[in-house]
Amino acid sequence: MALRFEVLGRFNRARAAQLTLPHFVCQTPLFMPVGTQGTIKGLATDQLEEIGCQIILGNTYHLALRPTSELIDELGGLHKFMNWPRALLTDSGGFQMVSLLHLSDITEKGVIFQSPVDGKPMLLTPEESIQIQNRIGADIIMALDDVVKTTITGPRIEEAMYRTLRWIDRCIAAHKRPHDQNLFGIVQGGLDPVLRDICVRGLVDRNLPGYAIGGLAGGEDKDSFWRVVAQCTATLPEDKPRYVMGVGYPLDIVVCSALGADMYDCVYPTRTARFGTALVPEGVLKLKHRAMAEDTRPIDPTCACMVCKNYTRAYIHSLVTKDSKGSQLLSFHNLYYMMQLSRNLHSSIVQGKFPEFVCNFLQKMFPKGDIPEWVCNAMEVAEIDISSCCAPFRYIQATKVQSNLNEDEIQAV
Fold first, then answer.
1. Residue 305 in marked binding region
2. Residue 91 falls in the annotated catalytic set
3. With a cut of 50, which residues of the chain have pLDDT below it?
4. Are 330 and 297 members of one domain?
């Protein structure tokens, strides 16, 4: 295995760790911005280093189309191609089964996509996914899995889970660079705890370098979301990283970290920036609003990023949706916010102050104490006391919900 995972601190389920990869030594919990085609839109790699980005995610499907994995390989791999000295993770291409479902056909052999570039069919098999990722050269590569939206029910969920287990063996056999690239398996099974458990145990039996929890953040209700995360983190190995795929809302990251997850990725911070929205401790700040036109304050007075030090809300308001600099400045700020959140999660766990951090985070986001019930329920399972920042009736209600769980449900989470 080309990684080392050392837990530095714990608070109940939450853990802070050092993840050593071929290109960088990372501190977890960590957030990975998505650079679909080898770039975070509007930002240079030295800016990403400046804000503390540790791992960038690249998209196998899109990189295979343009500029092609063969060209990337010829030019020295994606690290050199995009001038990024730190760690990289590439997805398998499997997510396109959901996002480009209208262009794909899934069989046991693999996924046949209709190329959005020229309309030609493109077969992505587990073997081809791994070969492409071997050429790209990321520190972490993902197994091709059969991805199904969590809003779908019925036999398709079970079919996809068992196919994911069959495909992981094909991915392992095809992986030619295990000494400098780490193959992560992906837990599937929809919202069915029995299927999730079968998939977790099957993947753990393969003794992979790390494990991802897939198939979430696809429209399911939040109560189902956290319960799946809690179930999987409770069963996955203590000495391996756990990656919740597609999660980028700060609240979700705090909750999942309390439940024992380590890694996250999402387009949310940069995509919402392009629509004029900034991430702040209170939630979000919409810079397009007319009220911002004469506001001379920084986006967040408590933020130490370059944008908050040098630009006003009024200036950014004049740019958003009109000039690319507006989205660049907001992308920089939003990613800085996510990196600072990661650093705070890590340090608070190491210092034994995680409950205080969680309460402080929730108080700023929900000053009236109206914390969502699903968060209260999740914190109860994570054994994080949030009674000081939660409206009394909500906290009592969440406690009552947990005390009413039957024995099977308690074991599941």
1. yes
2. yes
3. 395-396, 400-413
4. yes
